[in-house]
Amino acid sequence: MKKVRLLIFLLILVWNLGNFIQALALLNHIFLFAFPVLKPTYHLVCHQQPDKLIHIFGTSTLLCARCTGIYLGGLAGAFALIFTGRKLSLPTKYLLYSSLPMFLDVGFVMLGVYSYSKLIALLTGLLLGSVGIVYLTELIEKFLSQNRSFTE
């Protein structure tokens, strides 16, 4: 299953790099070729409201702060899972607990308790993404172990 975890990490890494494609294009203009394809692709998973994007070196991410946090958290969790050799099994309550700060943040912003904060959105996303990837990896590994023809 180590190969599966490595593959999950690499896929999430590529997804995260795509989120920062405009900043990467500052390093090398060859990255610009992907922008016309990536922007609408990332729009499928995020609202991309300009005031909620993270701005870096005069460019912005393709995902809002919360979605960026979720995917960066997923990347960090996937990286850690590469080095964890044991089988995964977390109680579902941990997924619920990790999503609670995000739901509270969204609720408080919508109720006008406080204004939207990119930092809070990013941090609540990081928490959910880092725990959520454990559940996603567990589901993928269970599926593959029950369907051996995929791994042979």
Task: Describe the model.
- This protein has 6 helices and 2 strands, in the order H-H-H-E-E-H-H-H.
- Helix 5 runs antiparallel to helix 6.
- The protein starts with a helix and ends in a 6-residue tail after the last helix.
- A hairpin with a 2-residue loop joins strand 1 and strand 2.
- It has 152 residues and is mainly α.
SSE layout:
Blueprint: H1 2-19, H2 21-27, H3 35-43, E1 53-56, E2 59-64, H4 65-82, H5 92-111, H6 118-146
Antiparallel strand pairs: 1-2
Helix pairs in contact: 1-4, 4-6, 5-6
TL;DR of this structure?
The protein has 6 helices and 2 strands. It is mostly helical and 152 residues long.
Total beta-strand segments: 2
User: Separation of termini?
Assistant: 12 Å
Number of helical runs? 6
Instruction: Give the overall pLDDT as a whole number.
Output: 93
Radius of gyration: 17 Å
Q: Could you give the order of strands across the largest sheet?
A: 1-2
Strand content: 5-15%
Percent of residues in helices comes to 55-70%
| Poorly predicted segments | none
- What is the chain-wise order of helices and strands? HHHEEHHH
Shape descriptor reads flat
Largest sheet: 2 strands, antiparallel
Structural class: mainly alpha
Entry keywords:
single chain, 152 residues, mainly alpha, two-stranded antiparallel ribbon, 2 strands, 66% helix, flat
